Amino acid sequence: MLPEAERIDWALSKAGPGTEVLGSLAGALILDLGSGTGRQAAHLARDHGAIVDAVDNSPAQHQRALNTYGHLPRLRFHLADALDYLASADAYDVIYSVNSLPYLPPRETLAAVVDALAPGGRFVFSVLHTTTDLRPPSTSVVARPEILRLRGGEDLTVHMHVLTTQLWADLAYEAGLQVDRTITIESPDDSNPVSYRLFLTHRA
Ligand SMILES: C[S@@+](CC[C@H](N)C(=O)[O-])C[C@H]1O[C@@H](n2cnc3c(N)ncnc32)[C@H](O)[C@@H]1O
What we know:
Elements: E1 29-33, H1 39-48, E2 51-56, H2 59-69, E3 75-79, H3 82-87, E4 92-98, H4 106-116, E5 117-130, E6 144-149, E7 155-160, H5 165-175, E8 177-186, E9 195-203
Parallel strand pairs: 1-2, 1-4, 2-3, 4-5
Antiparallel strand pairs: 5-9, 6-7, 8-9
Helix pairs in contact: 4-5
The structure holds S-adenosylmethionine.
């Protein structure tokens, strides 16, 4: 069991800004894209009075989220592909995604996010930027293999979009988002070169 989230960790535990970058949340309609265990979505519904939809396409994660947080008011879990869900989504005040965007097709997803936002709605997302092997991010929109070290110790190869900050910003702009701020999140451990980027944007 993971501990309850007391803030949103956008990248690494207790590194970088937290929930406050989402702005005022009480009564806001929010979507968590690629919600995984549902910890962050539960935090926003429970601790900030938000109305939260959380979507993930993993049946195991979905069931786990339902088992743990299915009883919470103002929180709904959806087992669906992100793009399918966005195509029929409501007008959200805030959409956010913690490290899930790299698994999705960037152009299609960003365009679908814009369509699912209310006018002026915010989209906040974090992405992997540099891995421990120090391979630089890509300057073209291609997914590449990355090795994830799982909690059990085994390695898992996944395909992710690890793109430069400028490329993510350009893709967001092309989709109709204004990028308000880009934040670098580094590991507090100096010997760990892993680095993430957090983008604060809103529907232009
Ligand atoms: C790195 S995990 C992040 C999970 C969660 N946001 C967190 O921070 O703990 C990426 C998540 O994206 C989900 N995912 C990947 N592709 C997806 C898709 N096409 N549609 C919906 N969810 C997807 C995975 O099942 C996984 O739960």
